[in-house]
Amino acid sequence: MTKKWWHDKVAYQIYPKSFYDSNGDGIGDIPGIIQKLDYLQDLGVDILWLSPCYCSPLADQGYDISDYYNIDPRFGTMEDMDRLIAEAKKRNMYILMDLVVNHCSDEHEWFQKACEDPDGKYGRFFYLKEKNAEKPPTNWRSYFGGSVWEDLPGTNRQYLHVFHKKQPDLNWENPELREEIFRNINWWLEKGLAGFRIDAIINIKKALPFRDYAPDREDGLCSVGTMLKEARGIGEFLGEMRDRTFRKYDAFSVGEVFNEKPEELPDFIGEHGYFSSMFDFNEAIFGQSEKGWYDSRPITPDDYKHCCFIAQAKTGSIGFLSNIIENHDEPRGVSRYIPEEDCCTESKTMLAALNFMLRGIPFLYQGQELGMENMSFSSIEEIDDISSQDEYQVALQAGLTPKEALRVVSKYSRDNARTPMQWSDKPHAGFTTGTPWLKVNPNYVSINAASQQRDPDSVWNFYKKLIALRKNPLYKETIVYGTLEPVWEERHNLMAYYRKGDRTLLIIGNYQREEQSVVLPKNANQTESGHSYNILLNNYPDIHIEDDSIHLYGYQVLILEL
Asked: For an engineered disulfide with 292, which of 103, 167, 394, 488 has Cβ 3.0 to 4.6 Å away?
């Protein structure tokens, strides 16, 4: 494998609207990010991925872009962005932005011109079909509910949108459209961006010709994913994008890819893949139901372990996954992967280590380093997220009471991750001096950055130690490039694996509140006086050993060098 500059890095996702507000308007901004760069440098992260801060009407919180060449005034100016790139560079940090090119906003100039002249150049930038009074062109359901077809204003046409109706899909079959996209990507890379996180990219290739599929709900529609399974030829688009943009700049690219076909993995992240890396969503999609969130199956510790190991085995040495516990589209990981009654510093740090030490590039999401938890919503009116609002209606239509539907939505809502960052125990968690755009989680009094930075046993300091271990010259080669081998895989509520390279590390997590023991494997360096190992990290103050056994406390995690 050719070694690349991003292989040994640690990435951190920033949701600008909720990170830090520098001017008191209740919305996080780019100057706020600049003010917190020293905090991020102290933690040890290298790559900062910013969720969209381009001009947008915010129908889908910035993933509906009206101008790819400008910063939305809510978040600052292009001068602020230039300054952020420069200040990050001074600290040996890299900036990624979101690349959202499956769709744009209906307020983008291209779409406005398509409305004026559907048969002209810009009409061909979108998927337009003649309107049929009897039925829409296809029976596909959008990701946010309802038909993917919407009337094109002032015409007898309809346009395709697989997300929100204010997010018309771009027609990648049109080479003129692709040229515009490549021009924009290169413009940003010339400006000094280190790369991009690529949003919803599988959706750019539709199965042609368009047709209906068997309905999967009572609304008579089918998931758009059914169509995507039939789509072929996305590699032509992605390979062209790589060659025309990322490759020329040695840029880092990480794909949001949920449903690649198994045989395509080397094409996506192999030696000459379309992307540098792609996210592992195995754990996030576990238990999903076509019926909706209300029918989802909760994930158990054993499920989590198997999801991680399946992804690792599938990837092997083909390339690098980007490993996450949470992001802006998911609930808080500690609330999802740890039983509610067991959510504590020990269980949070155990989850951190088990995920962080997997082979691949670790991605933290803002607040993850504090162990931020899900919000407790008291009504659907408190929830801003359009996806959550749709799922609430789906649950009601399935017969759940409003109280039951709210409980379901509260568990999975994207707003759990979008509540403002908890900086201190001051009003509004120190996020803003104004009124925050989204309610702050009341637990900020006990969970905040200021108190955790002072506490050597905090979740924040544990993440700092994990990052330092990954960068330690003695262990870096093994942690970054070493193989991963599961051990004791069938043990209930125990997740353990080796990382093997020029050294051998053993990561063991007791994924339950009850204590349990493991017998350390024999090795050639073992002496008569006992096992030969170093404790590199332990989320408890001590370790309990009897003869050949390590007695693990509830949610204890150990990283040992054998």
From this structure: 394
Q: What is the mean pLDDT of the chain?
A: 96
Name the segment(s) of the chain with CATH classification 3.90.400.10.
109-160
Task: Check whether 16 has a pLDDT greater than 70.
Answer: yes
Residue 529's pLDDT band (cuts 50, 70, 90): very low
CA separation for the pair 13, 366 (Å, rounded): 6
Q: Which DSSP string corresponds to 506-523?
A: EEEEE-SSS-EEEEPPP-
CATH class of 11-99+251-465: alpha beta
Report CA-CA distances (Å) from 57 to 253, 436, 474.
Answer: 26, 18, 49
Catalytic residue among 64, 150, 199, 329: 199
Q: What are phi and psi of 6, to 5 degrees?
A: -90, -10
Question: Which residue in 46, 106, 256, 330 is the catalytic one?
Answer: 256
Is omega for the bond preceding 298 within 30 degrees of 0, making it cis? Answer: no
- Least Cα distance to 33 among 101, 95, 92, 113 occurs for 95
Over 90: is that where the pLDDT of 522 sits?
A: no
List phi, psi (to 5°) of 266.
-60, -35
Q: What's the N-to-C CA distance of the chain in angstroms?
A: 26
Q: Are 76 and 281 in contact (CB under 8 A)?
A: no
CATH of domain 483-561: 2.60.40.1180
Give 548's pLDDT tier (boundaries 50, 70, 90): confident
Pinpoint the residues of the chain covered by CATH 2.60.40.1180.
483-561
- Owner of token pair 């372990």: 305
Q: Which CATH superfamily is domain 109-160 in?
A: Oligo-1,6-glucosidase; Domain 2 (3.90.400.10)
Residues of the chain with CATH 3.20.20.80: 11-99+251-465
Is-catalytic flag, 256? yes
3-state SS record for 101-157: CCECCCCCHHHHHHHHCCCCCHHHHECEEECCCCCCCCCEECCCCCECEEECCCCCE
What string of DSSP letters covers 425-457? SSGGGGS-SS--SSPPPGGGGTS-HHHHHH-TT
SS3 at position 213: coil
Spell out the residues 6+ positions from residue 245 whose beta carbon is closer than 8 angstroms to its own.
182, 185, 186, 189, 251
